[in-house]
Specification:
This protein is mostly beta strands and about 270 residues long. It contains four helices and 20 strands. Strand 16 and strand 17 form a beta hairpin.
């Protein structure tokens, strides 16, 4: 009887632990793009905007900080960041207002996550703690481009063929290379994806892609099997709205890509 009582008590304790763990664990949101609030333990490290991308069971965030004081982030402690290879540091981008943005993976929501931030002014790493708050999740919609905005700020290159770096607003959309061909002022880019996640791209918004099949840009595998996409680029250094189509979810997602004119290298 005593042995049976001990077994029953052990099973009950194990059940309670499992139940508590399940209650604390936050499920991954449905695949898609969201805005999310981010709490920081440091007033000098303030996140004013965060876009969270969910896909293939992974979370990726693009953080916009309130200023320009930090040059790199690292998912870990300051000590770990200082010892890590430089290529593992996450460099900043800039939004339209010049604020620094960082694209980084997120391991969990509603948990304190250690993030190291590199101060440009003081040339050192600082420990920060971030919490991505699931109670603030809202569906994300890419801002519509103002009519004539691209034409007014058009940045082009002389005729020729170039390699150029491409930045995006999503950790789920990354390109390992881009070849830009400029002829008679017309710019055409061939983008090579890091992952074969999207069967189609569309130059525009997801809401328009759904009804404009003629404008779908099908992925074409290169010699190594990587997906490539060819599309016209109206301007360098300007965020270009594109939509990506996931075969897995049968959905279109809004994204932006930017070709960095400063990285142009003739081929």
């Amino acid at each position: 009887m005593k042995e049976s009582a001990r077994c029953a008590a052990w099973l009950l304790a194990a059940l309670l632990l499992l139940t508590a763990a399940g209650a604390l664990a936050q499920p991954i949101p449905e695949e898609g793009c969201y805005t999310i609030g981010v709490s920081s333990n440091a007033s000098m490290f303030r996140v004013v905007r965060c876009v969270l991308d969910v896909g293939d069971g992974e979370l990726h965030a693009v953080l916009t900080l309130s200023g320009q004081g930090y040059g790199y982030l690292y998912p870990g402690t300051a000590e770990e960041a200082a010892a890590a290879p430089r290529e593992t540091w996450i460099p900043y981008g800039e939004d339209s207002e010049g604020r620094h943005t960082f694209a980084m993976p997120v391991s969990a929501l509603d948990e304190e996550l250690a993030v190291a931030a590199y101060s440009i002014k003081y040339d050192r790493w600082y420990d920060r703690t971030l919490v991505f708050r699931s109670d603030t999740l809202l569906p994300y919609e890419a801002p519509a481009q103002e009519p004539g905005q691209t034409d007014a700020a058009n940045v082009a290159a002389p005729d020729g063929v170039y390699a150029v770096s491409v930045t995006t607003d999503s950790g789920l959309l990354r390109f390992s290379g881009c070849v830009l061909t400029v002829m008679d002022g017309r710019m055409t880019a061939v983008l090579t994806a890091q992952k074969n996640s999207y069967a189609y791209l569309y130059a525009g918004m997801a809401k328009d892609a759904r009804t404009d099949e003629a404008g779908w840009i099908a992925a074409v595998p290169d010699a190594k099997g990587a997906y490539t996409y060819e599309l016209e680029v109206p301007s360098l250094d300007q965020p270009l709205s594109v939509a990506t189509y996931s075969e897995k979810t049968k959905r279109w997602y809004d994204r932006t890509i930017t070709l960095d004119a400063a990285t142009l290298a003739p081929l």
